[in-house]
UniProtKB/TrEMBL annotation:
Belongs to the short-chain dehydrogenases/reductases (SDR) family. PROSITE patterns: ADH_SHORT. This is Short-chain dehydrogenase. Gene3D superfamilies: NAD(P)-binding Rossmann-like Domain.
């Protein structure tokens, strides 16, 4: 038998396959040229943060920290390197004019920086704190220097009776409550789960999550339409921290609590959001870590340094103000210095 002739369709299919192979080879060659060019440019890895830390703001922030440890709960005035909270380049524009805010853990660190900027934006502020009396007085002076009224109340947010009494006192003293900032926290490293005793666990749980729930419940009768609650979460809730199992768990709970409460209060016109900071230079870590570890705090962050409180506080203003965040509720706002914290 004589071999059959190829049909036009088979001829066309052969040409198509040959054309596809040629196109694929051309693409592979193009990709090899790109690879060679990239190698020549030395673009294989991103550049590490400079030894002085990434500086992206209006002034240089400290990257070298003292090797210093503090006794709990940690007094800001005892720190050799004072945290920066004044935000000298921030100009207020009345975003919180006439509002009344209650800030837990407001004596130092993020809480102090938030209290000051709230006052600069026109708010009166109540500061709740444990027993760091000198720090709380300094925060009040800073708020008053901005033109706001300030009261300081000492107590333990683990105690529901204190939360209720404090909320009532703030409402009476300031004439209402428009913003609650849940910021008080307890942190203590523990490198093995077997060493996490019940007292340590309960201290963290009762302060960091029960305290947030209790304070929100206590202020709720005084909050009206347009009010807001802002919780302080953490990058640990997003990435975990092997030596802070209990702290990480509470921060994850805070993020979930934020979303759930936002959904519950939406119909009442009350917004609930959360700021998730990365490493921040406050008394919290020097009152936890050993001095050599404190000196390295924040070095492994994307920016190669910890944030200063004044770099966090504008995020709280943004979420608190009905002018800037009227359509934002249930958000977790990461302020971590980079995508990986």
């Amino acid at each position: 038998m004589t071999p059959s002739k190829k049909t036009p369709a088979r001829k066309a299919a052969g040409k198509s396959a040959s054309s596809a192979r040629a196109g694929a080879e051309a693409t592979a060659e193009r990709q090899r040229r790109m690879q060679a060019k990239t190698k020549q440019q030395g673009a294989g890895k991103p550049k590490p943060a400079p030894s002085g830390g990434v500086q992206a703001g209006t002034r240089r922030q400290p990257a070298k920290l003292p090797a210093q440890s503090l006794k709990k709960p940690g007094n800001e005035h005892d720190l050799q390197l004072q945290p920066r909270y004044l935000a000298a380049d921030y100009r207020g524009s009345g975003k919180l004019q006439g509002m009344r805010a209650l800030v837990t853990g407001g004596d130092s660190g993020i809480g102090r920086a938030v209290a000051l900027l709230f006052a600069r934006e026109g708010a009166d502020v109540a500061v709740l704190y444990l027993d760091e009396h000198e720090d709380a007085e300094a925060t009040c002076r800073a708020v008053e220097d901005e033109g706001g009224r300030c009261i300081a109340i000492s107590g333990d947010v683990r105690d529901p009776a204190f939360c209720n009494a404090a909320a009532a006192r703030v409402n009476e003293a300031l004439g209402g409550i428009d913003v609650l900032v849940n910021n008080a926290a307890f942190q203590l490293h523990c490198h093995r789960l077997e060493d996490l005793d019940d007292a340590h666990l309960q201290e963290t749980l009762q302060t960091n999550i029960a305290g947030y729930v209790q304070m929100a419940r206590a202020v709720l009768p005084y909050l009206g339409e347009g009010a807001s609650i802002i919780n302080t979460g953490s990058e640990t809730a997003l990435f975990g921290s092997p030596s802070l199992l209990d702290y990480t768990a509470t921060k994850g709970a805070i993020h979930a609590f934020t979303k759930a409460l936002a959904a519950q209060l939406l119909g009442r016109g009350i917004r609930v959001n959360c700021v998730a900071p990365g490493p921040v230079w406050t008394p919290l870590n020097p009152a936890d870590k050993q001095a050599p570890d404190v000196a390295r705090f924040g070095k492994d962050s994307d920016m190669g340094r910890p944030a200063q409180p004044e770099e966090l506080s504008p995020a709280y203003v943004f979420l608190a103000s009905p002018v800037t965040a009227s359509y934002i509720s249930g958000a977790i706002l990461p302020v971590m210095g980079g995508p990986r914290g």
